[in-house]
Design a protein that fits this description.
246 residues; hypothetical protein PF0899 fold; 32% strand; 9 helices; four-stranded mixed sheet; alpha+beta; 2 domains
Length: 246
Amino acid sequence: MAVVREAVELGRAARAQAKVKLRQPLGEAVVVAREAEQEAIERLEAIVLEELNVKRLRFVEDADELGVWELKPNYRALGPRFGKRMPQVAAAVGALEGRSAAATLRGGGRIGVAIDGHEHALSADDVQLVLKPREGYQLERAGGHAVALDLELDDELRREGLAREVVHAVQAARKNAGLAVEDRIELSLVGEDDLLAAVRAHESYVTTETLATTLSYDGTLGQPGGSVSIDGRTINIALARAGPPA
């Protein structure tokens, strides 16, 4: 369970870093996991997918597959040792082949750099390892674990994200109208075409989540719920408590 919790925490941290709302579904989360860890996550895959709001999980065995390693000198550790030669050290460290150097350091080994014709050995304490995610991904890592989120949005993901935002807005309108949590409603929406297209594409989800027994797009219904801006688009919400079933 701990590895599942960490995967969710890393995935959510990646969302936060990318400034992507949890309501916006994403296509894929790539998880670094050994075989036993992968099996544990797969047993609770549905929970992980829901918690991260992604469509699928993909597993890799090493963080190297998620990005490119960059090496930077640890100035606090190396400054007293090299003094005015630190610019040379920084250049030498930056010129190293990232993947092989990172593998050596992560394995407890040392790497060598030549400064003024002399070879100097550096340990993991002397070098900062930065894993830069592949283009279009946001990466978070902790120790040997990492999760990368695919941030590319196709039209379907965008529509679903907009539909979720509309649900959020309707729930706020329900609350402002003083409705009880269990009250069913009649709902009417008027707004920009792409917002309404998103709602129509996910109408069953919208009506289920908002407890709407009817949904129209003419704006003529009873109590106005207000005008809301969603990603720069305006939608007008009108709702009324639904009567008892006939």
